[in-house]
């Protein structure tokens, strides 16, 4: 890549190229972005973001553009912007209701984007926002039952969203109902987890793996929902 970076984001575009943006360059946060071409096996620097971002979130929009939100530039960010691969430009869109880094991002079946939790002002957040790409606007939706940071999210086969972990010393999980815009507790995981992964399997179950309980306790366990 054109720069060393950690806590950055990678998104695969419709043309199979991969856009990497932001992160921590070791001597400061970055707004730079690179594009990887798997056929040529080369990296190309593209236009930088309008904001330096670390620990932000990103997703692909239906038109092939890349949506990026939140993160930290030294201060928490509520801003969001969109990258157009055709024009190689970033355009600011409206901002979330709260500034945050390391939330979860989920693309819903109705095309809206759910951003939930994260770290806001040094505290865990339970706030969730919905972004509507068709209008370029955010709306506050139902708040999670638990404030979460270092959590993970998975869109279930029925279109609802499962959120796990990151809930202080609690292992409860909860589900966001897209039709009612509400959260419901759905039992507890076998282990308290933070910074774990979730993967939806072809049979509809969700694999939750690894993570930490504390800075000194790392997990190799996995469980199925």
UniProtKB/TrEMBL annotation:
Q: What is this protein called?
A: Uncharacterized protein
- Gene Ontology biological-process annotations: protein ubiquitination
What is the scientific name of the source organism?
Adineta steineri
Instruction: Specify one Pfam family.
Output: Kelch_1
Which of UniProt's keywords are assigned here? Kelch repeat, Repeat
The organism's place on the tree of life at top rank: Eukaryota
Mind telling me which SMART domains this protein's record contains? Kelch
Q: Please give the InterPro entries that the UniProt record associates with this protein.
A: Gal_Oxidase_central_sf, Kelch-typ_b-propeller, Kelch_1
- Extract the signal peptide range: none
